Amino acid sequence: MSRRAAEARLALLFARRDLDDGQRDQAQRLIDSTLDWRLLLALCERHGLAPLFERHLSSLDAQGMPLKARAALWARAQSVARRNREMADELAAVVALLDANGVASIPYKGPTLALAAYGDLGLREFGDLDLLVRAADVLRAKTLLAQRGYAMPQQLTREQEEALIASSLLYELPLVDPARGVMVELHWREDPDVSVLPLADDRWWRSLACTEVSGRSVRSLSNTQLLLALCLHGTKHFWSSLGWLVDIAELMRRDTGIDSQWVRVQARANGCERRVGLGLRMAKDLLDAPVPDLLAPLTGDATVRDVARRIEESLFTEFSAPPIATALRLNLSLRDHARQRISFAWRLAVTPGWGEWLRWRLPRGLFFLYWLLRPLRLARKYWSGG
Asked: Are 40 and 11 in contact (CB under 8 A)?
């Protein structure tokens, strides 16, 4: 960390709920040095860390910080806290509507993650509401949420929606309420490749614990299940946000009872040891996350080390999504076995996605053509410049 710029080092110190005495001293020395405050706040904005930055700067001597920058950070943190409360209220209302009509759901990420990992609704930035539901309930939930003004940004036919839910590539349905400016994403799997959570098992649903959000009891994943889901989510997006790593680190700091054996067994059984190991390694490297010894082997894989280094180098530079070829290579390298790499590449090449469903509105009897149109569209887009 010493080779990083002062702004990056301070950002890493602030990317946690609490500072110990040594970290406070380090942070104060960095604040007292010559900092590019504009760069620091740009990092704060990019990684969604305004509440944590405001929390720590308010407890330190930051007289050298320009007043305009200080006011902007305070206003941003206040805005996040206010918006989070509104989103939590909306989540409670959405869950109540679904429950009243027999649709079970599990909120994860968003407000429930803020409470589980930080113990404070206002300390984590989030932009939408994510709900896990049974695949069989997705379209019913969509119809119910229309009562609150939610609709898909792009419309599909009913037949296309049914095919989308049955797809092996897609796993979420976005719904937007323009009036409230809220997006709800209905997930019938936690990841396109891995389905660790038995969402079709009624007994599993009955075993779930509950947490309180805005005065309403809602179902919640255990922190052990949540940790695995968060690792898969972050790796899918190449950990482009430091805030996602803070979630991992804070969850492990707050809950020392996470079942490491379960995580390791599930990661191996589902062929996602590298993807889980990547999140754990980066959280430990950058944020001193207390990764249990039983999970340490997942972080030591040579591929995990190499990908972690490449991502860590990009976290404090101007962000740009990796080129398609680079993203494909990284995704393939993070599959544990050759057969997974072959399966992933094949599904990505031929399985219809949003691009196909939205571009061509075919009748059900011609849906098989989507499997032919997919590779043709990708070839034109990435190799012919179309």
From this structure: yes
Q: Which residue has the tokens 């609709």?
A: 151
Q: Is the pLDDT of residue 86 over 90?
A: yes
Q: How far apart are CA 378 and CA 112, in angstroms?
A: 38
**Arithmetic mean of pLDDT over the chain:** 93
Assign 1 a pLDDT band (cuts: 50, 70, 90). very low
Which of 313, 344, 314 shows the shortest CA–CA distance to 328?
344
Complete DSSP assignment for 287-333: H-----GGGHHHH--HHHHHHHHHHHHHTTS---PPPHHHHHHHHHH
Here the tokens at position 58 are: 């308010």
pTM over 0.90: yes
- Boundary-marking domain end, from 194, 221, 248: 221
Asked whether residue 34 is assigned to any structural domain, the reply reads yes
Q: How many CA atoms lie within 13 A of 380 on its CB side?
A: 7
Give yes or no: residues 88 and 216 share one domain. Answer: yes
Residues 304 and 317 reside in one and the same domain: yes
Domain membership flag for residue 238: yes
Q: Which domain holds residue 315?
A: 222-329
Phi/psi-derived region of residue 214, left when phi > 0, alpha when psi is between -120 and 50, beta in every other case: left
